[in-house]
Amino acid sequence: MPTCGPCKVSFLHFRPFPVTIFTVIIYLALFIPLLIIHYVPPTPPPNASLKESIGVDLEDTWRTLAAITKKYHPYNSRANDHVRSFLVDKVNQIIEKNGNNKSEVIEDNYVNVLYTGRTTVKIYFESLNVIVKVQGSGDFEGVVGDVLVNAHYDSVSTAPGATDDGVAVVTVLGLIDYFTQPNNTPRRDMYFLLNNGEEDYLNGAMAFTEHPLAKNCRIFLNLEGAGAGGRATLFRSTDAEVTKFFKRAKYPFGSSLSGDAFKQGFIRSQTDYIIFDGELGMRGLDLAFWQPRARYHTQWDSMAFTSINSLWHMFETSLSSLVGMAHDGSYTFVQGSGRKHTGVWFDMFGRGFAIFQIADTFIWSICLLTITPFFIFGLFYLLASSDKLYLLASSPKSNGPLPPKLELAGCKGFWRPFVAILFSTSAVVGTALLIAKVNPMIMYSSQEAIWVCLISLWIVTSWFSLKIANWWRPSATARTWSIGWISFIAWLLLVLNAVAEDRLDVGGMYFTIFYYMATALALVFSLLDLFFLPPTSHIYDSIAHADPLEDDDHRSLIAPSVDHTNTLSPDDEESEPPNEQTSLLRDSSNLGRGRHIGRRPNSHGSLSIGAASSLPTIENNEDDEPSCSSTTLCASRQYPGEQYWSRYLPRYTWLLQAIILIPVPVIITAQIALIVGTSIAQTGADGNNPITAYILYAVFTILILLPLQPFLHRWTRHIPLFLFFVFVGTLLYLLLAFPFSWNNPLKVYFAQTVDLRTGENRVHLVGVNKYIKSIVEENIPSAWAPGADLVCKDDPLRLGLQRCSWPGKMPNVVPGYESKKWASVNATSLGEKDGLKRAKLEVRAKNTRACRVNFEKNIGKWIKNVDIFDPTGKGKTVKHKSEGKDFGGPVQQIRLWSREWGRGWDVVVEYEQNEDTKAGPVGVVECLWSDANDGGIKALEEIKSYLPQWAVVSKLEDGLVIGEIPFATEKVKEI
């Protein structure tokens, strides 16, 4: 009779080749669409179709973007006035085209607001906002509140502002076009605010708070740009109720984690959203572009680096949300209604959108944390009651005389998942910290390589550790124990989520809910597998039917090996298939009844069902399984080397476990990982610590790949071997490659100061410590000129960066005048009033509408009140509602903004008289020039011309050129 040879098992069995192929396909099927959605905005329908369906010409809207981004147009520039005039004309043309005589264009040229910016900074700002009112049908009873749509039309002084905030501005024009059409009249009144001055401390939005129309608005949509292109993401929302409108979008994109990052201060920059939410108490959404930040606030924030697809994505999501807002007839958003709950939300593959109230997710978390463990413990109890708890049983139960001790070895494999997780986590975190130490800025241009490196490393280290453990002590319970450990880790993360929801009112860790649900459900199915096993007492029952063992004949009951020196007898071939009554001391597939092979006592002389056999179990091909011609016998085989009783386990449930365990956690977590990774990759240029970013990369790598671990020990060696070389290659690249490129340039920050008394000037360039000095020394001609006096030191404005300063080319910001005539300040005493001393500062400056008054530190703390007056007497200053008679703190700086050129300001301060103030206020006036369009700022032009191609310049302060004049009270100083 021939010996048994190998036969192929079903492709769906838990074998190396099927497991490898199936799990790899699952991950690729999830990663590929997530990457496409993350990086590629949706394509708009044909323009003719859009004009027919919604009446908006998207191509004309795109051409409008070209018209407003021809030049840099900050508030303090002549180009800003041209953009404003163009927008007013465009809105009037739209209204006239649609024949809507109920719409109104309001040019706000009269609101002057004085308010507190930072604690020690007072800001006076004169509005140049444009407001468009579209009257609704009003077919509801009572007052429900109006809808506000906001975008700012100013740019920074170093960027054309295509996405910050040009795309948003032309989107607003498209929305005005839609809602002024006769067939699209909204139910609620709508206000479209094009504000001016957002880039200089959100001044335009703050001025709107003092406009009479502001009190009517209850819902808002803010459109912003914090990156240059890509998809528009929902940055944050005030509550769950208003977020439901975003669910209407065809291509929603975003996660509430970003809102929590703002709330907890991890993101320090702000948008107009905080004005409408905090100052006006409105409820709404913050929709913004967010990647890539390398071009943000630079000359590359232009139409060349955005697309009509990005415009379409912002327009479609905005229109869908606003249609819901404008036609909502509920009283949910009436001030004081009380129906406001923190929202937890996220998109699903960029096509669906989930929204929950944080109170509901908290209850959900608590239920999962408490009920699910009891249910799992209940399954353990049922397994123990039915004598099938192989996971924890050290030896079978016996109902008769005790035979030699037998081991089930079900606990074998308990610690290996934890050790593998610890080993792979340490490797990933250590590698991330190594990159952060050696080449921290590489994430600036190569975040994809970081993901590939860390993912490859985690898979290789986990596979290697699990494979070694499986070779040393094979175990059929490895998958179940691994799922159990992952579920326990997910339970701990869910505890953190519940604490954050309860104590911090943030739901950004919502992914832990779905993570734990998936892992717990997979664990339940793993435990249900054990119910298919025979009771452990069956082992002893089988011994009674076996040949007696000699004292020194210790039989291994795990995976009997193929004995190629023996053949099957006819009796063996005709034997019945194994069943629950078949003796476990019998090799039911290869050997006759009672045959004893593979004798190998364990360390304490017991009969082991979990120890490895002393003979080979399978042929060299690990994808094959020893079998006979009988398919029944082949199918009943356990995996070679694993416990004999595992042959009774279902062979297909691993597929169900993989489908439950992998997709949901990976989808939810990978989406957040991509958003977080992209958001932080280029923040190093702002002075942020890169270690935090690399730790986050490592953490999300681990969370994404943990669901793969229960199946890794079955993987073939081919993919881990390939990934090992991928890891080595990417690690060498990340450690050695230059971190910047033309497509991902390092951002450096420019300013120039001029002493208006002497004409001396210094150019300042701020950037990352490791690179900024070499950039200046090796590339900027004026910095290496004789007597350049280059000085580099830590920057006081941008912590974590270095400032290099040197004498530069004199700017020509006031043509035809020498620097002494650019600005003047007169400080005179006005006597005493109501127990306070008074002083007047007359600040005048040519060709600018922005100055700053800086008081000496010991002076500012005694100032109790500030008033700003228009020297022409035409305007009236309105103190913001938060400004009382007593400012309640030191006034170190007053920022002055005028809507008119060269007019100036009269500043009256009231202060307590004491030893510090007996001579009156003392300080420095700084006047700002921000127009870089005509080449008047020669030092900036030089830097733009000579910077290496892997660097790009942005503004450091509100002004590109800062002219300084000291002042002292009662001394008239005209320069």
From TrEMBL:
Cofactor(s) essential for the protein: Zn(2+)
Domain Vacuolar membrane protease transmembrane: 419-717
Chain intervals for the UniProt region annotation (Disordered): 561-608
Record family assignment: Belongs to the peptidase M28 family.
GO molecular function term, any single one: metal ion binding
Enzyme class: hydrolase
Subcellular location: Vacuole membrane
Stored InterPro entries: Fxna-like_M28_dom (IPR048024), M28_fam (IPR045175), Peptidase_M28 (IPR007484), PFF1_C (IPR053975), PFF1_TM (IPR053976)
Biased composition range(s): Polar residues: 579-591
EC number annotated for this UniProt entry: 3.4.-.-
Residue stretches in coiled coil: none
Domain Peptidase M28 as annotated: residue spans: 129-319
Membrane topology: Multi-pass membrane protein
Record GO biological process: proteolysis
Source domain of life: Eukaryota
Record's GO cellular component terms: vacuolar membrane
Keyword tags: Glycoprotein, Hydrolase, Membrane, Metal-binding, Metalloprotease, Protease, Transmembrane, Transmembrane helix, Vacuole, Zinc
Membrane-traversing stretches: 21-40, 362-384, 414-437, 449-469, 481-500, 512-533, 654-679, 691-708, 720-742
Compositionally biased tracts (Basic residues): 593-602
Main location: membrane
Domain Vacuolar membrane protease C-terminal: 746-961
Record's function text: May be involved in vacuolar sorting and osmoregulation.
Taxonomic lineage of the native organism: Eukaryota, Fungi, Dikarya, Ascomycota, Pezizomycotina
Listed name of the protein: Peptide hydrolase
